[in-house]
Amino acid sequence: MPFFLLAIIIELIVNAWRSAGVYRSNDAINSISAGMLDTTTGYFTKFLPLLAWGFVLENLALVDMQLGWFDLSARGVALWLTAFVAWDFFYYWFHRFSHEISILWAAHAVHHQSEEYNLSTALRQTSTSFLFGWIFYLPMFLAGFPLEVLVTVNAANLIYQFWVHTRLIGRLGPLEHVLMTPSHHRVHHAQNERYIDKNYGGVFIAWDRLFGSFEPESDDEPVVFGVRKPLASWNPFWANFQVYDYLWFDARRTRRWRDKLGIWFRRTGWRPPDVEARFPKRNADLDTFRKFDPLVGSGVTRYAVAQFVVAIAAVMWISELYLTQGLAAVVLPCIALWFLLYSLGMLNEGRAWARRLELVRLLVVVPALVIAFAATQHDLSGVAWLAAAIYVLGSTAWLVTVKLHNDKVILNQIETRVN
Hints:
Elements: H1 2-18, H2 25-45, H3 47-59, H4 74-100, H5 102-112, H6 119-122, H7 138-143, H8 147-163, H9 182-188, H10 206-211, H11 236-253, H12 257-262, H13 273-278, H14 298-325, H15 327-349, H16 354-376, H17 382-418
Helix pairs in contact: 2-11, 2-14, 2-15, 4-5, 4-8, 5-11, 14-15, 14-17, 15-16, 16-17
């Protein structure tokens, strides 16, 4: 996480230096919030794929490929390289099917909802990938690749994909023929008809060239980022449930049982004919497309950014707490973090009741969770109690100040937009 955050800070500096305009605080907060939600809910869910993989490796593996971590023999190097390339091959098919099958898209859509494209977008991850994603990698465990090798190449694959989420790097010459580059991945995040559902590879672009899903970025058609059915929300929880909700809506209203079940596994975008007739939906028109960007005062924006810095620190503390003290220790801190992320989303949307919600969080939820955390698991030091009190009182005072000046700022912004 520190590496990712440092890279984002560098991109922010370059963005400001070039006046590139590739960041909006509300969008970046929402993207990283989705990543935080994925990380923290993952403490409670991501052991499930490991159980399945471990069972296959222990009981069904065809070959025993056990290997020492530092085996630099020809066999050792070949095994690591084969695993790295093979993982990317299976990632390609998982990624492709995640765009082509509705229930897989319901999870993956989270990553594509941002209407900006920067390194914060890379951290915009779904919290429900543990449901089906592990299935696509079973052949590697069935083949007998060691667990530590596969977990490592999975991490390497994901880390590689981080840096390609940027608009500040152009085409990279000969590398464009071999690797997934920022240019190729910008195409993948487009909602333009020409670009949609292209360039699925993680590290290598060869799979797309081989299986007919490659499309180069064209100077003649700038990429429009986002999805055809916009999220139109800064709520990271709704981001994870939006497409599931669409599918559930159609499944409940269609008359045929075949369609009630089939809609989850049909091609993305398919709807039962009877539901489509009664409840037609239109995708966004790119000719009139406008980014989701609710008007809020500059004071609200500054407050949200400051609170988000607190959230970043909290995520790193929670991860350390999980590693040192286990799952039970992070339950209450995770609940506190989730409440914060939801409240920030509502503030950035400019909801009329968002300030009241934030006051409830500061004056009720945070004190209650701190007291419960101290009572059930930890004896907090005097410094910790003092820091919590300063945080609650200081944030409350700031929030009250923001409320007093927000309406005037919004009126000024509206006048500017109209003019």
